[in-house]
Write a structure and sequence with these properties.
With about 210 residues, the chain is an alpha+beta fold. The chain is built from 4 helices and 10 strands. The chain is about 20% helix and about 25% strand.
Length: about 210
Amino acid sequence: MASRTFSLLFSLVVASFALVQIAMAGDPNILSDFILPANQSAVDGSFFTFTDMRVLIGAPEPTSFKVLKASLAEFPALNGQSVSTAVLQFPAGSVNPPHTHPRSAELLFLIFGSLQVGFVDTTNKLYTQTLQEGDMFVFPKGLVHFQYNVDSKYSALAVSNFGSANAGTVSVPNSVFTTGIDDNILAKSFKTDVATIQAIKAGLAPKP
């Protein structure tokens, strides 16, 4: 556990340098050093400090794929700074389903474990790679992509950096099957029957 904790801390430092680089093509520039919340006229160092990642240190591994984000919603000091980050936890055999980030590329750094990753470009060509510890992979802005821990025994941990304080996430399964699109439209689009569409929707429905 101690070696994993050191690996996590070291990797977060390395990832921070990558975050600076990816931020160069991010959100529009601001005309001040930083942006204060509307209800505040002054801040101190705590405003620029994000502590929610402390829950990772010494915590048990999750039983399903989990994301901890430090984006504008969680960390208001990022407003106007064109940066955000996320820690991705992959138990054995788990997947981060196909999704997109409409406002930023994603630069993923694999801390430990292995991941099968890939994205599809606008010509419908699939690019895949199997990542090992220490590897990085870039998912171009707005393209559908995924990450999968194919290992049936060991977990994986990655840090993803974004060139936007609010990169946005559009889940392909959820946006298609849980937003109320008519079953007949989906059945025709996927060249299947309504019963199959309803079964998929039932599988994606929140568990009670």
